[in-house]
Amino acid sequence: MSNRAVLEVIALDAEDAIAAQAGGADRLELVSDMAADGLTPSRETYTRIRAAVDLPLRVMLRLADGFAAGDVKALVRAARELREEGAGEFVLGFLDADGRADLAAVELLVAELADCRWTFHRAIDRAVDRDALRGQLAGLPGLDTYLTAGSATGVDDGLPTLLAEAARRGEPGYEPQLLVGGGLRLDHLPTLLAAGVDAFHIGGAARPTGWTAPVSPTAVRAWRTALDEPALSGATPAR
Fold first, then answer.
1. pLDDT of 66-75, one tens digit each?
2. CATH of the domain spanning 6-232
């Protein structure tokens, strides 16, 4: 069994996707409009990226900035259209006005995503109770990943939470993979890897000159190398 950690990179278009694959990414998160923290890409964008690379693609389902579901019927239509184009993995996450998981919205989308794997994204970092949110979502079909920084303000502040949650992996509600992202830096990796975290998500870190520039394969390669070095040295992450 491979000890290779998963490296997921945000891609806005086919140019990003090709560069991320060249740098050693394992998976892409497809979004549009990073000024709104990532919205659903068009089906045409998905098709172009799918033709350009052979990496797994997780497609964002989010139509407006923030963590309210908004027009759920429009979300379902977007999911259906993307599935018609061949998409089979998704990213979503919605909270209600009380900061709990919006189960009504999530369950409607999950029904549309039958047989698809999906990530609950950083809405968990804004939840009033992270553990309760995991309990709400436990058992939903296809949920295999939580994207989280451990805190709404990023990994620096969320590191203690991430380490505590990594230690609970396998418990009820903690079976999905912990995918760490949001203010993640290379110097965070040794601590996270030692705790058994095995999946990492980067966006701005793959674009050293900012979001107006495409993904840099050199930047992605630096992350791939940093993640691979512990495995190459024979170190075994804690579990």
1. 999 999 999 9
2. 3.20.20.380
